[in-house]
Amino acid sequence: MLKTLMASKDFLALTLACPDGFEQPESMILAGHTRISIEATGILRIEPLAEDNGKDIILSSGVHGNETAPIELCNSLIRRILNEDIRVKHRVLFLFGNPPAIFNGTRIVDENLNRLFSGEHSQAPGLINPERHRAKLLEQHVEAFYLSAPGGDATDSPIARQRLHYDLHTAIRGATYDKFAIYPFRHGRPYRRDQLCFLHSAGVNCVLFHHEPTTTFSYFSANEFGADAFTIELGKVFPMGQNDMSRFAAMDRQLTRLITDDALHLPEYDPSQFHLFRVSRSVVKQHDEFSFTFANDVKNFTAFARGSVLGYDGENPIVVEAEQEAIVFPNAKVPIGQRTLLCLVPEPAPEVM
Ligand SMILES: [Zn+2]
To answer: Which residues are catalytically annotated?
Structure first.
């Protein structure tokens, strides 16, 4: 497996050649300084042998199989590492989230993988489909990666190392703010200035602060391992190979610096340079008969004034109660009991540390 990888330097191609599984984990040393380990299908761990600079970085993509740009971006970082064009200074775990869906070019196979973390995969009806198995496996590899770092299994809190997890996505629809990040619920802890500055430097100047625990991948890493973790949306979905990668140049540059530099030098935090929102509510679908009043192609972050009717859940109108609410991720087709819409209000001055 590693022989094939080192010949092609193409971890995505290797992953898609056997989307349903590798036989064994395999490991090798690259150029005497970096350990390369294929842990499982779509899971590649890269660790510097000599230095250890105290960061454990997870970069995941393809949790939704048709969100191709982040997959291409991560595959290109991997290629440059394997080619020895760049050399990592920190431990890095690359995850292709949902290989069978990437193989099919579809968002999901049976179920939305990004609703199955924090143990949701094993809740009734249990491990009945590929996404549920994959969520469980990804959780195990995240845990193993963070805890196997030098000093990573120490139970003292806070941990001495910095744990990061950037879960990279692209959105189904266009957005007023093309790139945005979701900051998982912090259980009352302030937001991290350095993380907001990193996102800004990577071209992401719009951030949603989530208001409750979720079953997303980023919340899992943040909540269970104290990671600075984000769901990052990088613009609209295009088929594999049809992305204009120049749109992701800032993210590519900053991720490269993150994994190859000792420390990042970022500008001072200035909230006026961001569009910051908090989730005012999450609309959960209650009835089969469900529709939005706005057009299918309405952009994420479109704002509606108080009193506007956003849609109908069965007979019940969904009415804007704040002075203004912006909408994000509307999806009328989700199953009953799942989130069909997030509503946002501005949060111009969040508490930061
Ligand atoms: Zn996605």
So the answer is: 233
- Which secondary-structure segment (H or E) carries 43? strand 43-48
Reading the block at residue 285, the tokens are 């679908």
Band the pLDDT of 236: cuts 50, 70, 90. confident
β-bridge mates for residue 164, sequence order: 57, 228
My answer on whether 201 and 301 are in the same domain is no
Residue 222 and residue 301 in one domain: no
CA of 65 to the centre of ligand 1 (A): 8
When pLDDT is averaged across residues 65-69 and rounded to a whole number, the result is: 95
How many domains would you assign to the chain? 2
Distance 60 CA to ligand 1 centre (A): 11
Same domain, 210 and 296: no
In a domain, 347, yes or no: no
Domain limits at 328?
Answer: 281-339
Q: What six digits make up the tokens of 137?
A: 């496996």
Q: What spacing in Å lies between the alpha carbon of 158 and ligand 1's midpoint?
A: 30
* pLDDT on residue 24: 84
- The verdict on 184 and 91 lying in the same domain is yes
Same domain, yes or no: 308 and 175: no
The answer to whether the Cα torsion of 104, 23, 216, 161 is positive or negative is negative
**Both structure tokens of 169:** 């996505």
Residues 275/205, Cβ–Cβ less than 8 Å: yes
- Given CA atoms 173, 175, 180, 185 in this order, what sign does their dihedral have? negative
341 Cα to the center of ligand 1, angstroms: 15
Residue that terminates a domain, selected from 272, 297, 325: 272
| 43 and 76 within one domain | yes
Query: What is the 297 CA–ligand 1 centroid distance (Å)?
Result: 17
Q: Which residue has the higher pLDDT, 168 or 329?
A: 168
CB 170 within 8 A of CB 155: no
Residues 232 and 293 occupy one common structural domain: no
C-alpha–C-alpha distance, residues 231 and 242, integer Å: 23
